[in-house]
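Quick one:
INPUT:
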């Protein structure tokens, strides 16, 4: 089972604001609404996590957090938009393994560098990938699934949240490791806030394990995850669609 991580990040600040000290900026921030870009369509697990976090952030900071769903290209479209936004902290992104570790390895020009173009805010949690089949499917175990796929090459489909997503890459990697042929079907269809029992309860229903951390923890995760998933992308044989 692969675990994917969910993070909050903002466009990296290249320089300080003219005539304003860091202390003064910190004291006045935020003074207006913050936009949280979720790089997937509404209704998916990533979007659900983002909206839960946005609601609690609004309550805690006293300013509205507006959710902006910008799907496309495995989440890289919305993520790129945040990377190119004004680095003032008012446009932030909900990042996860697919956009910050897989995307830059899979797409020839994702349009951003996850370590240079973003300032990490913090890790939200870990969420598992699960392998499930319809009750009518002949195989009931992983071993039976592999045997069935080998006996029926190219006739077993697997769905994912879209090309280049964690579910896509892990599915392809599973197929390559097991020596089977699966047909990919892409579908188009996250510090203080995390301490809230109500947020933990809501995210827990989605299978997310709350693991808050510091910006430094988050930066280390990005570096580690990007290297790991770059290897998985290469090993899976997946090419940009």
């Amino acid at each position: 089972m692969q675990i994917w991580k969910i993070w909050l990040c903002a466009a990296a600040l290249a320089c300080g604001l003219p005539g304003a000290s860091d202390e003064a900026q910190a004291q006045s921030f935020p003074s207006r609404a913050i936009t949280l870009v979720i790089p997937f369509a509404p209704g998916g697990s990533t979007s659900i996590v983002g909206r839960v976090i946005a609601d609690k952030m609004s309550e805690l900071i006293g300013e509205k957090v507006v959710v902006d769903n910008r799907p496309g290209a495995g989440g890289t479209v919305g993520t790129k938009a945040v990377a190119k936004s004004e680095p003032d902290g008012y446009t932030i992104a909900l990042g996860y393994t697919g956009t910050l570790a897989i995307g830059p390895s899979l797409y020839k020009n994702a349009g951003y560098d996850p370590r240079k173009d973003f300032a990490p805010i913090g890790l939200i949690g870990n969420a598992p990938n699960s392998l499930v089949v319809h009750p009518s499917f002949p195989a009931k175990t992983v071993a039976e699934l592999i045997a069935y796929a080998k006996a029926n090459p190219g006739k077993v489909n697997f769905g994912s949240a879209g090309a280049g997503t964690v579910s896509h890459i892990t599915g392809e990697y599973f197929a390559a490791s097991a020596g089977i042929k699966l047909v990919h079907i892409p579908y188009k269809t996250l510090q203080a806030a995390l301490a809230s029992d109500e947020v933990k309860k809501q995210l827990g229903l989605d299978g997310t394990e709350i693991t808050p951390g510091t910006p430094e923890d988050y930066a280390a995760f990005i570096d580690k995850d990007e290297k790991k998933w770059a290897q998985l992308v290469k090993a899976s044989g997946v090419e940009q669609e």
